[in-house]
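Hi R.,

As promised on Friday, here is the backbone we talked about, encoded as structure tokens. Could you run it through your design pipeline when you get a chance and send me back a sequence?
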């Protein structure tokens, strides 16, 4: 029997139900210029004082597992390169910045030399100014050229909010330069009547990779003047382009370089990143170009107090009687409420949109009990809001009108919120880079700041709050992406052929996998080869073959049966588990039951209801080894990496009573199996190793299954992934290896680079996995160590002590981690 751990999308909905049920039962930023919010007077309380108030009382104090004090740091100034125009330097000085930090001047020098450069320094270190100074100077040169439009620059941001914030910053900085600098946002929110003006007259266009993919590149003849004059491409927050999304963006950038070459331009790429490992290598993988690295942060930093916070155990019991902790969402709502009462300007970062809404509602309700005016100073910020709503919230936070905000990562990325005193992070955000990015939102004016990470009931979060050295003494991760993934590359080859016929010399740009894919695309009738190259053959737009942020396939529409109203969509890959017949679906605080899932028309029909239970899909998974790329001995066992085919079928669902998790019943389902060809890492153990670990046949399946769950939970510490991006299977006797085997695979067609990273960090990864299981205080396993919220087998069987012994024996003869290629 195989025990599986399939990528799914139900955890946030289940946590939201849990929070609603129990929460009330438990009592310098971009421009380097310090600013105080309007109407704010007096000195701020020190971060240590704020933390003392939050942790007053014996029960609260016990929740802090570690406090890290990071001292203030002095800055190091330099002078701007002499090629920066004096008008630009004067405008910068007028904004209150007399001299640049050393890293800003260094990055500007590389840009002016025509070298692509990535600046990877801390939050609020002035990365924007490092690229704006050379960009504005070059745009001024172009504005004075006799050929009309002159030089142009393109800015790419991962979110609309960041692009809008950057336009405001550019307008403020460039105001003394007159109308020679014409910044404009071009995205899905841009009115159609403004788009033509942007194409014809803007010389600094701010957009996102999605609009570049679907709007600008397919219409490149209309952008010919802009592209012909393109000198710089700025890629902000480039560390966010990882996994499948990053791989798509890498191919979009190669298409951009190809179209630019058609018009005679060869833009320089300027990338800004949070501190990351090997930023030049990651930036080169993203752009396909050699990139120079600037990572010595010369900016000053105020004192930072960083606390790790573990919610307490409740009297509730979950699956198989496991103890249950209070949710991070409920705990964060309490902290945001208390910070607001203290007058501390704060942002709480939450992983889900639903979580952000819940935290803001809970905080507002509790504040309203004592001060209704204070309740109005707390709000939520997430994707899905109207553009004018997002801008209004950003202005209110910026001015100090709002004291507390519960936000998704849409606010994480560079939006200028100078003046914040504290940040609360509801659950480890998946990478150290994101953790420091979120923590850096506070204290951006150079003053002291408080950051608190609230642990979720999850193996990785629990490990981190009890092993602070894994956060504070380790470098950030290497960004993982795989532009050569054939499932990513193929639709971009089609899109490129639709933009301009593909030729043999073009294939070098798209990577070594491109030549082998072209015959397959011809055979599928998507491309046709002629003497002058490969041509797109269809009437529909080639750019619509792929959603660069999606998982592939047509999304399933969720429709209210009685009204026909579209409530939302769910990725096709997640639909079998998320919106099967009988599933409980949450939408904007309302609960619906799925009455029918029509796979042919990609529609799930739902009706509003208030069931006293949640639902959890159960599935079966088998995995077949297609090809082993590489393997190394682990004592008598083996560690392998290669291609696999995963076959999964949702076979039933459980109804669980809210709060307690008690199983009320199981209903069979008749859904077709799904197959996924992807990449995996796997390890085997021999009979001798099992004997040495005292693992008998009765507990073997549970030991393997527990080790699989915990290893999936711990992998985000070593690869830039989320546990929902990966899956796993454990088998007491696998037909391809003929041994007990644990597989961990990428949950995306063709792979995303996560399993490969796991292979190259396997010793450290599985060592941390063993520590996480062994150090958990529970007796037989719980969500903090070996239970998984997405287990298709209902977390059965699991054997905690057997998993510890098994991993101990496996690691006893583990070699050094193999180097990455």
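Update: got your reply. Pasting your designed sequence below so it's all in one thread:
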């Amino acid at each position: 029997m195989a025990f599986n751990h399939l990528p799914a999308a139900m955890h946030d909905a289940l946590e939201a139900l849990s929070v609603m049920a129990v929460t009330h039962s438990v009592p310098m930023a971009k421009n380097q210029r310090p600013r105080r919010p309007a109407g704010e007077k007096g000195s701020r309380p020190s971060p240590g004082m704020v933390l003392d108030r939050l942790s007053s009382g014996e029960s609260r104090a016990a929740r802090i597992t570690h406090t890290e004090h990071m001292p203030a740091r002095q800055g190091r100034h330099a002078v701007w390169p002499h090629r920066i125009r004096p008008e630009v330097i004067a405008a910068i000085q007028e904004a209150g910045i007399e001299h640049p930090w050393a890293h800003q001047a260094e990055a500007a020098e590389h840009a002016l030399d025509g070298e692509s450069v990535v600046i990877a320094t801390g939050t609020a270190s002035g990365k924007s100014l490092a690229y704006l100074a050379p960009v504005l100077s070059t745009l001024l040169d172009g504005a004075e050229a006799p050929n009309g439009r002159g030089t142009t620059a393109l800015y790419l941001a991962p979110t609309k909010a960041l692009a809008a914030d950057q336009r405001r910053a550019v307008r403020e900085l460039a105001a003394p330069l007159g109308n020679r600098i014409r910044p404009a946002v071009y995205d899905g929110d841009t009115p159609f009547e403004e788009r033509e003006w942007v194409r014809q007259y803007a010389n600094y266009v701010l957009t996102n990779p999605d609009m570049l993919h679907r709007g600008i590149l397919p219409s490149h003849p209309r952008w010919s003047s802009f592209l012909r004059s393109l000198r710089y491409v700025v890629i902000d927050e480039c560390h966010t382009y990882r996994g499948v999304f990053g791989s798509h963006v890498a191919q979009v950038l190669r298409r951009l370089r190809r179209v630019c070459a058609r018009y005679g331009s060869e833009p320089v790429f300027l990338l800004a990143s949070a501190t990351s490992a090997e930023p030049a290598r990651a930036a080169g993988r993203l752009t396909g170009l050699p990139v120079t690295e600037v990572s010595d942060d010369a900016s000053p930093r105020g004192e930072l107090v960083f606390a790790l916070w573990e919610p307490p155990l409740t009297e509730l019991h979950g699956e198989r009687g496991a103890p249950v902790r209070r949710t991070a969402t409920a705990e964060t709502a309490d902290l945001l409420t208390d910070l607001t009462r203290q007058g501390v300007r704060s942002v709480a970062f939450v992983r889900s949109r639903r979580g952000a809404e819940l935290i803001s509602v809970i905080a507002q309700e509790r504040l309203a009990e004592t001060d209704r005016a204070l309740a109005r100073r707390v709000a939520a910020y997430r994707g899905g809001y109207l553009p004018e709503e997002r801008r209004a919230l950003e202005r209110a936070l910026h001015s100090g009108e709002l004291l507390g905000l519960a936000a998704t990562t849409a606010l994480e990325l560079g939006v200028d919120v100078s003046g914040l005193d504290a940040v609360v992070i509801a659950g480890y955000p998946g990478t150290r880079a994101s953790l420091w990015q979120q923590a850096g939102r506070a204290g951006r004016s150079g003053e002291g700041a408080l950051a608190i990470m609230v642990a979720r009931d999850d193996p990785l979060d629990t490990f981190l709050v009890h092993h602070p050295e894994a956060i504070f003494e380790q470098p950030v991760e290497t960004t993982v992406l795989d532009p050569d993934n054939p499932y990513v590359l193929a639709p971009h080859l089609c899109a490129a052929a639709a933009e301009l016929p593909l030729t043999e010399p073009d294939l070098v740009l798209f990577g070594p996998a491109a030549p082998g894919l072209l015959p397959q695309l011809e055979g599928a009738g998507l491309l046709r080869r002629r003497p002058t190259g490969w041509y797109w053959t269809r009437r529909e737009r080639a750019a619509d073959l792929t959603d660069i942020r999606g998982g592939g396939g047509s999304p399933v529409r969720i429709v209210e049966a009685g009204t026909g109203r579209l409530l939302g969509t769910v990725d096709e890959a997640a639909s079998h588990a998320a919106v099967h017949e009988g599933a409980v679906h949450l939408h904007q605080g309302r609960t619906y039951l799925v009455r029918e899932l029509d796979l042919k028309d990609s529609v799930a029909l739902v009706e509003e209801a208030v069931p006293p239970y949640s639902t959890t899909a159960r599935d079966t998974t088998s995995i077949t080894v297609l090809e082993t790329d590489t393997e190394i001995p682990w004592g008598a066992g083996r560690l392998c990496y290669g291609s696999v085919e995963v076959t999964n079928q949702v076979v039933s669902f459980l109804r669980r009573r809210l709060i307690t998790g008690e199983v009320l019943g199981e209903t069979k389902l008749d859904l077709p199996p799904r197959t996924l060809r992807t990449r995996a890492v796997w390890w085997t153990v021999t009979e001798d190793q099992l004997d040495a670990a005292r693992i008998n046949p009765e507990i073997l399946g549970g030991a393997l299954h527990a080790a699989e769950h915990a290893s999936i939970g711990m992998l985000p510490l070593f690869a830039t992934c989320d546990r929902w991006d990966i899956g796993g299977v454990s088998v007491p006797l696998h037909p391809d290896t003929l041994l007990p085997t644990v597989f961990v695979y990428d949950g995306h067609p063709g792979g995303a680079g996560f399993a490969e990273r796991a292979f190259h960090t396997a010793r450290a990864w599985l060592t941390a996995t063993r520590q996480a299981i062994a150090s958990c205080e529970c007796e037989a396993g719980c969500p903090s160590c070996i239970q998984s919220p997405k287990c298709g087998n209902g977390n059965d069987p699991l054997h905690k002590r057997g998993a510890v012994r098994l991993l101990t024996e496996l690691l006893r003869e583990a070699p050094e981690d193999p180097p990455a290629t």
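One thing I noticed while checking it: The two ends are 35 Å apart (CA to CA).

Thanks again,
M.
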